[in-house]
Structures
1.
Amino acid sequence: CIIYVLIPRNRDVSGWKLQDRQEFLTGCIGNIGTEELCKCVMNKLQTKFTSLDDMYKNPQMVAETMKAVSLECKK
């Protein structure tokens, strides 16, 4: 017996709306680096913050976290 589970691609990930993810990637690619690096950074941010709004609640923490995850992704 095989069971298939279909998950829509545009489904929100831990509170991150599709539009928020696209907006983050666009801004990141324009300012930080490659699409591959930005996707890595975004994936790590999604595990640390419940949503994009949650991430921006503490700007100081965002700066520190972005620096740390960027370094992780560049390895």
2.
Amino acid sequence: MSGPRYRFAPSPTGFFHVGGARTALWNWALAQSQGGTFVLRIEDTDEARNRPEWTQGIIDALAWLGINRDDPHFEGPYFQSEYAQQHIDAALRLFEQGDAYYCDMTSADVEARNKAEGNQGYQGWSRDRGLGPGPGHVLRFRVPQGSTVVHDLVRGEVVFDNAIIEDFVLLRGNGSPMFLLANVVDDMTMGISHVVRAEEHLPNTPKQQMMWTALGHEPPVWAHVPVLVNEARKKLSKRRDKVALEMYRDEGYLAPAMINYLMTLGWAPKGGEEIQPWDRMQADFRLEDVNHSSAFFDLKKLAAFNGEYIRAMSPEQFLEACRPWLFAADAPFPADRFDEQVFLALAPVVQPRCATLADAAGVIDFMFLAEPVFDADAWAKATGTPESVAVFRSVLAAYESLADWSVEPLKAVVDAAAEAHGLKAGKAQAPVRVAITGRSVGPPLFEALALLGRDETLRRMRTAEATLG
């Protein structure tokens, strides 16, 4: 496919980071809106940490975000390890051109010399020694004098003084290529025109731009986007924060909600409306509109986004989306007691009470349990006054002879009992709710009673009444 070529180049060394997910989405949006290509490259050269399941995890996570391999804008995945010889060939070409040189100094040698001379870092001591390849010899890039100007679509023009950039290593002492070199050669090989990545990579950019130029290529368009931070405004960390995209997926966050939320971290959709469909965001997204400052990954806001998307689902869509949790091994009710029609009838009043799909089973579990899990403290509080006990008994008596077992008559009975005993509606409903659901909160009471049925409602209320003495 013609047009600009963007790339996403994760390492398969762990779960898929939400920060990487946002970067992938921004690259995907640009490739789609500009008629270009999204190239997936798996940077798998860290053999000690790479695992095949992490690679598949990346592919699955991208697919969950709508970045699918069968889309015409998608290309790959490519694997960096398959291009090792090209990396080495490029390094040797730089040596032959005089843009790189061999150095036999070990880390200990560098440290000792710096201590003696009062310097820091590598000072180019082997530049003119004329060394060739050999055991333990690293190949270093010869950093030119002057400065390097990086033109960044997000950060503008960034100038680096080459004097503070040491001659960096291209090939290790064992002949294997370093990441910076491999990254550049891969981008050249794959015709990458735009490199959109996190700002933490910005310090490496002048080194990479030098290699692009030395190898006779025009550098790509750079764009370094702000990192994601936690509530303490510290960069999201795998060790400290909940950053794995798979965890959110498995907890019942909807992919469209996650996509929508991630897109807005550092960028604001047009019109001020944050909840927007992918097609509109994809068409409107521009790197020039991305903020410079770090973006707060707000779990509460993510839950709010997810709740909006859950409420927008039809009952049938909600049921299908909830199935993995409704029939999970640890579901709060037996699978054979679940009734789809009851769930569908309650769905419109359950959806507003769910921040995630996983919440649904816990909201309506009492409908599918032989006995609800009874909260004794909630019952004691709901029946803590003579008036509340009187209301409960009055409602039970009225329900035993109620002819029309539907929402409005059920509600009218409680309202009448509340008025007769001087209680507000919420106080009057409380003991009935706990008797039926086992707890003090849940979906609208009378819709639940209507679906639960006369016999089961009366049975639960009589069981609860027996505890009153």
3.
Amino acid sequence: MTLREAISKLAACRLAINLTVTLLALLACAGVAASAIVPAPPQINASSFLLMDTASGEILAEENSALRLPPASLTKMMTSYIAASEIAGGRMSLSDKVKISKKAWLMEHPGCGQRCGSRMFIEVDEDVLVEDLLRGIVIQSGNDASVAIAEHISGDEEAFAELMNQYAERLGMINTRFRNSHGLPDDDHYTTAADLAKLATALITHHPEHYATYKERYYTFNNIRQANRNTLLWRDSTVDGVKTGHTEAAGYCLVASAVRDDMRLLSVVMGAGSEDARSRESQKLLTYGFRNFETVTLYAAGESLTSVRVWHGEMGILELVIDSPVVLTLPRGVRESLTATLDINSIVEAPLSEGDVLGSLRVGLEGETIFTGDLKAGNTIQAAGFFGSLWDSISLFFLQLFGGDPLAVVE
């Protein structure tokens, strides 16, 4: 047995006893804050609702959020998301001109009669800019504009609906099925509050420039000025979207989002009783969330949490990082009680590749673990040559013999 093998065998006996380092820097003060008392969510008069912190994905309130319901014009969020994705991918431009078909103008739909629902008043054979159509979809909730965009992207609306379903699957919208681009009733056209939250979050994060359109209050096309149907844009200056919907089958629906003090909340209300009710119930959810919770970013993606000694490597020091941001939603008043612990392998030896898992981060609150994540090697370290490795083996042997810390960085 070589000296290095003997040391590794000795180290194996200690692997079960990981080094634990408490990061006192997370504590804002020496004392421990009292437990925050968070009131129950407000009563919401709707078929389904959800309140979420978009940064952490934490659900702060919900009821029937997995219930499949008709989305009405909330469907147009996906239509505009796909259009924004086409533009981002270079397959379409805001300056492209779209020839308006008779179907887009008539909005032919079973049981709908002739020109039905909300529209932006485009005309047959008119050439309309993609930019105008997108504003017609987002601000005026135009069914005609939705069909025109669908036909421009996929050739016909049926093919576009299949594209919508592909995007839904990619976004993890497991309880969603689209049959058209606008949301007029179809028995096989449905979604859930939870799925709409995923879509709205993707819209906000993936396409922020396009999302900015959702906060515009008015849009004029063909000399017809129409107001955004999201009345929260007038009631609450922190609200910057998202979309309303209404049919007899769906009731009154609203996906709303607001930002206060670097915290973005998203509410979904489906099946409210009136236009005023959907806004009122959404405002109740947003107020509840902002008043009782806060978003806390503990670490940025790629941030180094500590340095450790590396043995048998060309480099002797390694930064341990966490590759995704650590963002938590906490009740207000408990931030000072957070503790963070690093559990690191007893000995770190080369060769190492960037991204190798060498331990874990554990964040606790009042004795309960609320987050765990992998600690990874921040860079690649090649194995040392024969003499360097031999010297490390001797040094490590005597260090452990006398109870030294194999992870401590020697300055």
4.
Amino acid sequence: MLLNQGSLGATIHTTPMYKNYFIASTLLLGTIIGAGIFTLPQVFFRTGLVVGFLYLFIFGILTAYVHLMYAEVILRTKGEHELAGYTEYYLGALVGKVVKITQVFGNAGTLVAYQILGSEFLRLIIPILPQYSESVLFWALGGVGVVFGVGIIAKSELFTNGFMFLIVIAMFIMGLPYLSTLTWHREITEPFLPYGVVLYALIGQQAVREVILYLRKKKTPVRPIAFIFASFFSVLFCAVFVIATLLLYRGVEPSLNVFGPLVSYLPIIGLLGGLLGFANMLDSAWTIGTYFKGVLINDLKVHRLIAIFLALIIPLLGSIFLQGKLLWLLGILGGVFAGFEILIILFLWKRARESAKASGRTPDFSLSFPSLFFWVFVLLFGAGLVYKLVHLSA
């Protein structure tokens, strides 16, 4: 599986361009490192670290290719679209309408999840806030990225992602004395438990277009390095975060609200964790909010002001109605929506390479991907989607 980068390859090896690639990768990295990572410690505790890390490594590679495939689709296609628009363009109006529905509900649900978790983390680090004010404050901060867009997001995520990595490293160092409490092997009773959780934690296709827009704004050729860098460090971050959390829980199963129980006996870690979660939810909410706004404007043809209003109001109202149902919400988002969108991206990539519609635009890079691997991808994600649908209806 090779990358063909075209004639511009010899011109990209300059410091400013690599700086642009690094900053652009933070857009994708900040989206990947979202609400899903906070479910990983509990799942890895139940399955054992060996099984959990196997899922993490395999899905890290698979999702990296999915991000690159989607980037190639965008680069090959004229006009500005989101996933639903590309689907309608290549796969037909009916499939496009289905994707529009899943995009609206999936991204709205993700924004609600970020609003719920972000408010909890804000309450953790500022406990003296009046009741409900943490929700209003996080909502107001989240609206900044939605209104001002990709420029402020790229700059802010470079800071917040670095901040998050420093906090996780500090957690890991403080947990080293409890290294013997880690459980690497367990009797496997739920072998597919990590599927939806890990997939949701590593997929970030909503930010792929934002990466491309940022690089074009900087007049920098779009290269795979930005997407590969983001995927590699997301896997590394998840792995270190899981180990650090399990070390601090000292052999006890972590809760979904990872940092809450730690406050009573590790107040510094509780505060750092709250800051980590707050920064994580905020920059992810900015990126997803911008993507959701783009879906409404570009694919549903909603007026820009109405799209901004909806992107702002849905997280606040949704968090009110779904408070206490976060685990249920994350299960649906990870097990159903992510798997379905990956399947769509796979067929979009295949169709975009074959279609005459895309011939008017030469991509900055193209993937050389054997047909056998493509159908293995389809079979894997298709079977996973069916499994999660059956599991949810049981």
